C-alpha cells in the first residue's frame, strides 16, 4: 500500500513494468509486491507484510507470485511482436527456502509452493504443494531475493498469456519420507485471468450525452505546457487496455469511466440527478428501477423496455370498495410477476439452484476473510465459489427489473389507498390481527389490522393497516422457490423489523422483494443481505417518514449482487449502522443504492468487526458507503451509489469506503445540500480507485470536515485506477495523511477539485504522484483549488501552479476554472 513500509525482512520484490504502445520491450504486469520470510531466517514462521492489498491478514505467511500480469499494446514476445492478450495468471504462491543439500549440483534458493489457486496456469499442470521451484526458464537464484517475475526467457524476463514457461523443481516422495528429493521439469502454458475473454475496448461512450467538465481543458492545457502529453496519452492507453479482456460481470458503465477519467463527473451526475432533489416515495419505484436499468444494462445503449404498462397487463378491477376485488388484483399481479420470474430461472436446474444457495455464504465468508478471492486457502471453498460464479454467468437477469416493475404496482399509493378504503368499507373489524387473507399459488396474501401485531409466517403480499408491529417473517422478501415475489406495506406506527436470518427486509433473494413503511419511528435489525438488498434479484426498502434506525452486520442497507438492492428513506434524522460491506454496495453484476432524502441530520457508520489487513493498529475494514468491488481476480465489481440529499450528516467508516472502487467496480458518494458535513475514514477513503477500479466523491456545499484515521484519503488512484474528488463550495478542512489530497501511483489518474471557499489542507502534500513499479510508465495527479479564497497549505502557496513527480500538477487559482486557463499558463 502507498507509504506503508514493511518490516526489515527478506523480500521477493515484484517490480512491474507496463510499457507504452511504442515500446517493444514492455508490456508485462505483475500484480504484487510482497515481503516474505525465508525458512531459515530469524523470525521464520512470522507472517510477512502484504504491502499493497487489504484483507490479507490471514494470508501473510505466503507470497503471491501469481503473475497477474498484463501485456500492453505492441510488445516484444519470445517469438516477436504480438497483440495484447490480457493479464496472465501463473499461480505459484510460496516462500523462499534454501535448496536442500545433496539434492542437485546446485546451491542457492528456491520457492516452496504453498498454494495454487483455482483457475491459474499452475493448476493445469503437474505442480504440487510442497514442490520447490529451483529454476525458471534456466534462471536460478543464489540469494534469498527470488525475482520469479523477471526470470522468464523473454526479452525483458516477463511473461504473457500463451507463453510456455519451463519450471525445474524438486519433489518429495510421498511414500518414502527419507528418500532424496527428485528433480523434475514441468512445462507451464501461461493462461489469462480466469473467466476473461476478448472484448470491445469499452462501449460506445461517444454516443453517451455527457457534459464534459470545465477543468478538463485546464488540465490538458497544463499537461501540454509541461510536455506531459505523450505520457498522459500513454496512461490513457494503459487504462483502455485494462478493459479489453473483461470477465462476464464487467459493466459497460464501469468500462467507460475507467477509460476516460474526465467522463466520470458527467456519468455520476447522469446517475444521481433524477434522484438528487426529489422526495422519493413508493410512487417512485419505476424511477428507481429505471436508474438500476441505466446502471446495469442500458448505459451507452438504447433504453430497454423493462417496466410494464399496468393497464395492458393487469385488469385494474380493484377500483371501488370491493375488498375481494383488490385481492383478485393482487393475485393477478403476483401471477404475472411469477411468469417473468420463470424467464430468468425456468431453465435453472434444481441442482444448480441448490448449489447457489448452499455455497453463496462461503463466497461471502471468503471475501470477508481475505478480500482477494484467489488468496482463499480453503481449496474446497474457493473451487465452489468459482463454480458458483460460472453458474450465475449463464443467467440473464434483465427480466428481474420487469418483474420488479410488476411488483411495484402492488405498492403504488393509488392502489394502497384504495385497498385501505376498501378494508374500511368492508364492515370487518379492523382491530383484528387478520382482516382478510387468501392462499394463492404464489403465496399467502394477508391484510392485517390496526392493532399491535407480530408476524412470523412467510407472506407473499402483506398489508398492515397500522399499529406498532413486530415483523419476524420474510418482511417483504422473496423466498425460493415458493414466493418469487413479495411485498409488504405498513401503513403506520413505530415498527420493529427483526431478522436473525439473511435475505430479509425488502430483499430480492433469487426473486423480487419490496417493503414500504409509510411512517413512524422504525427500527430495522438484520444480519446479511437485508434492508434493501438483491441477490440474483431486486430488493427495495422505502421508509417514507420518521427518525429511523437501521442496524446490521455485513452486506446490507442497499446492496446489489447480480441485480439491484435499493434503500430509500424519505425523511427524518436517521441512523445507519453496519460493520462491513454495507450502505450502498455494488458487488459483481449488481447495483447498490442508498438514498436519504430531505435535510435530516443523519449518521452513517460502517466498521468495527474486522481489523485492517494492513496490520495498522486501531484501523478496521469498511468496504461501504458508496463502494463497488469485485472478487479479485475472478469477477469484476458492480456499482454502489450513496446519495444523501442534504442535512448536517456524519459519516464514519473503515478502510475502502466513501465513494470508491476496487477491482473493476465503481463507487459513488454524492452529498447534496449546503449543510456542513463531517466525514471520517481510514485507508482508501473519500473518492478513490484501487486495482483497475473507479471512485467518485462529490460534495455540493457546506463547511465540511474531512478526516482519515490513517492515510490515503480524499482523492487517490492506485494501480490502473481512476478517482474523482469534487467539493463544490464551503470553507472546508482537509485532514489527510500520507497519500492524500489528489494522489496517484502505479498508473493511476486522480482529479481533485475544490471549487471555492477558504480551505485548509493538513497533514499531506497536495498533488502527489507515487511510483509506477507495477507497470512502468507514469501516473497523473491533478489538484485544483479554484474560486480564490484564503487557502492554507503546509507546503503549497495560494495562486500558484506547481508540477512535479511523475506526474503531479498543483493549481491554486484566484478565480473560476474557466477564467484562469490563460493566467495559469503565464504563471508556469
Provide a compact summary of the structure.
By secondary structure, the protein is α/β, with parallel strands linked by helices.
Can you give a write-up of this model?
The chain is an alpha/beta fold. It has a 16-stranded mixed sheet with strand order 11-12-14-16-19-22-25-28-32-36-39-42-45-48-50-49, covered by helices on one side. Strands 13-15-17-20-23-26-29-33-37-40-43-46 form a twelve-stranded parallel sheet, with no helix packed on it. Helix 4 (264-276) runs antiparallel to helix 5 and helix 8 (350-370) crosses helix 9 (379-392). The protein is globular, with a radius of gyration of 28 Å. Residues 1-80, 201-206 and 821-828 have low confidence and may be disordered.
Oligomer: single chain
Please give the order of strands in the largest beta sheet.
Answer: 11-12-14-16-19-22-25-28-32-36-39-42-45-48-50-49
Shape: globular
The averaged pLDDT comes out at 86
Q: Please tell me how large the radius of gyration is.
A: 28 Å
Termini separation: 33 Å
Q: How helical, in percent, are the residues? A: 10-25%
- Low-pLDDT runs of 5+ residues are 1-80, 201-206, 821-828
Q: Which structural class do you get from the secondary structure elements?
A: alpha/beta
- Main beta sheet: strand number and arrangement? 16 strands, mixed
Strand content: 25-35%
Helix count, DSSP H or I runs of 4 or more residues: 12
- Tally the beta strands: 50
